[in-house]
Amino acid sequence: MTKKSWNNIKRRKIITSNTILGRWGEPKDLEGIIIFLSSDASSYITGQDIYIDGGWSVKGIK
C-alpha cells in the first residue's frame, strides 16, 4: 500500500474489488504472523514466502 495508490480513488476501488476480504490491509493485519514468526513455534520454518494480502494474490493480481 502506498500513499499514491491510496489517493487514487479508481486504483483503490480496483484493488479493493480484487481482494477477497474486500478491504485494504492495515498494520494490525500483520500482528499475528509477526508474533508467530518471532516465537519458538516457527523455529523449523526457513525460506518461506507468506502472503498477507487479504486474498489478493489468490483472486489474481490485476
Structure summary:
The protein is mainly α. The protein has helices spanning 3-7, 9-17, 31-37, 56-59. It is elongated.
Keywords:
elongated; single chain; 62 residues; mainly alpha; 4 helices
Description:
This protein is mainly alpha-helical and 62 residues long. It has one domain (3-42, 49-59). It is 40% helix and 0% strand. The chain is built from four helices and no strands. The longest helix has 9 residues, at 9-17. The relative contact order is 0.21.
Describe how the helices and strands are arranged.
Layout: H1 3-7, H2 9-17, H3 31-37, H4 56-59
Helix and strand string, N-terminal first? HHHH
Q: Structural class of the helix and strand makeup?
A: mainly alpha
Count of DSSP strands:
0
Q: Please give the alpha-carbon distance between the first and last residues.
A: 15 Å
Strand content: under 5%
Anisotropy-based shape? elongated
Radius of gyration: 14 Å
Give the low-pLDDT segments.
none
